[in-house]
Amino acid sequence: MGVGKSTVGQLLAERLGVVYRDTDDDIVAEQGRSIAEIFVDEGEPAFRAIEKAAVHRALAEHDGVLALGGGAILDADTRELLAGQRVAYLSMDVEEAVKRTGLNAARPLLAVNPRKQWRELMEARRHLYESVATAVVATDGRTPEEVTQAALDALELKEA
After folding, report:
1. Which of these, 127, 115, 110, 102, lies nearest to 44 by C-alpha position?
2. Cα dist. 6→32, 45, 125 in Å?
3. What pTM did the predictor assign?
4. Fewer C-beta within 10 Å: the chain N or C terminus?
C-alpha cells in the first residue's frame, strides 16, 4: 500500500513500450464502486473472490506491465499463476509508508491503528511477496524514476 506500484508500473510500461494495466482499476471499473466500498458492503472474503477473478483474467489477457493489489498474493492459485513470470516486489518500511501516505488514506485494512496494522500486514505477507518475486526492489528514499530503473535492472529488461 502506497509503495508506488501504479506510478512505477506506468513508468515501466512506458520505458518498455508496452501497455500498463492495474487489477485494482479493473475491479473498480467492473464493480462500479471503490475497493473500500466493496470491503464495507460485502466484506473482505467477497472482495478477495472478486480480486482473484480479476487477477486471473488479467494474467490470461494482458502481456504488458500488470500491477496487482497488495492482497492478491494471498491466494495460492494466484501465486501459482505468477510462477515463471517476471515479478517485481516493491518493498518499503513503515516509516516510508507513513511519509508517503500518512497511513490515513482510504485503506480498509488500516482503519484502526494504521501503523500497527501495516506492520502486521507486512509481517503476514512479506514471505508471500518474496515467494513470487523474481526481484525485490526497495523503494525507500528513491524517486519513481530510480525505482523504475532498479526494477528494469533487477528484472534484466531492456527498454524499447
Report:
1. 110
2. 20, 24, 19
3. 0.83
4. C
Cα(146)–Cα(41) distance, integer angstroms: 38
For residues 148 and 8, what is the distance between their CA atoms, to the nearest angstrom? Answer: 6
Mean pLDDT score, 21-44: 96
pLDDT tens digit string along 104-154?
545 555 555 666 776 777 888 889 999 999 999 999 889 999 999 999 999
pLDDT at 62 over 90: yes
- Given a cut of 90, is residue 160 above it in pLDDT? no
8 Å CB contact between 90 and 3? yes
What does 95-147 look like in DSSP terms, one character per residue? HHHHHHHTT-SS-GGGSSSHHHHHHHHHHHHHHHHHHH-SEEEE-TT--HHHH
How far is CA 57 from each of CA 6, 64, 92, 132, rounded to the nearest angstrom?
Answer: 19, 14, 28, 18
Distance CA 9, CA 54 (A): 17
Does residue 8 contact residue 144 with C-beta atoms inside 8 Å? yes
